[in-house]
Amino acid sequence: MNEIVLSLYAANPGAWVSMGIVILSVLTSWALNYSSPHVRVFGTVLAGLGCLIIAAWFFLFIINSGVLEDPKPNQTPLDSAKPSLLWIQSVTALLTGLFLLYVANRQRLNSSVLVLTAKNENNRYGRVSRMLHWTIAILFIVLIPMGIFASMIPEDTGYRNAYYVVHKSIGVTVFLLVLVRLVWNKLSRRPSLDNLLTSREEKLAHRAHNTLYFMMLAIPVTGFMMTSYHGYETYFFFWEMQPLWEQSDVYKVWGGFHKYLLPYILYIVLGAHILGALKHQFI
């Protein structure tokens, strides 16, 4: 095993972009959970604009970049699905952004003050849990299409490394925030689930939550292992860490987990989680 070597890497624009994304994610999460209704409207607007920016990034840059037509050679048949996944995610981001702006417009009529304690209560999450939840969620929304596109960029493309700096920096941030969330869950007990849930729904909800926590830890870890065994650096904003291990074909195994198995499981579990939340909210 090599020594851990960290060096400043401030020259890459990806470091600044990733820092900006994290700051905006925290700001949006803070605003969404603020007591003042006007600030919460601002948070919803920020969330909506963020979704629209993701959609604009796809429709204005990715489509015109030529990467969709001439990507990095596929390593497995599953790679051929990446353009379709980007299309689906971008259209979803566009529709979600428009919907959130509509919600923000309706929120202006709401004058209720949101009173939250820092710690969780018996029947609802506190401000800290909510901020961690939404910050992680927003970063993951950015992380997924960013990672898909970065893996498609041909290796001789000038901006390829900047995308990986953003992707890896956000990935490390998500990993650290999930660890903080797990520690916080020990310090502030999670509220009990809604009494309206059946025992079967309650078990499914617990399993979905636990699976999501596992995925949010496993995806960054497998990405780090894949990167290190492949001989590439890991970036965390302005710092660059050299590979910890000698280059080895073991990276293909870790890559199989990071790029194929875990993401597709995540799509299924996340979709079920969102559908369950919508059912709980509207039905």
Largest sheet: 3 strands, antiparallel
* DSSP strand count: 3
- How many structural domains does the protein architecture include? 2
Shape assignment: globular
Number of helices: 7
Question: Using only CA atoms, what is the Rg?
Answer: 20 Å
* Category by helix and strand content: mainly alpha
On the 0 to 100 scale, the average pLDDT is: 83
Q: Report helical residue fraction.
A: 55-70%
Spans with pLDDT under 50 lasting ≥5 residues? 1-6
Calculate the terminal CA-CA distance, rounded to whole Å: 54 Å
How do the helices and strands follow one another from N- to C-terminus?
EHHHHHHEEH
Order of strands, main sheet, comes to 1-3-2
Strand percentage: under 5%
Give the secondary structure arrangement, pairings included:
Elements: E1 6-8, H1 13-32, H2 37-65, H3 82-107, H4 127-152, H5 160-187, H6 199-230, E2 234-236, E3 239-241, H7 251-282
The gist of it:
With 283 residues, this protein is mainly alpha-helical. The protein is 68% helix and 3% strand. The relative contact order is 0.13.
Care to describe what's here?
The chain is mainly alpha-helical. It has two domains: 1-154; 193-282. It is 68% helix and 3% strand. The protein contains seven helices and three strands. Helix 1 (13-32) packs parallel to helix 5 (160-187), helix 4 packs antiparallel against helix 5 and helix 5 crosses helix 6.
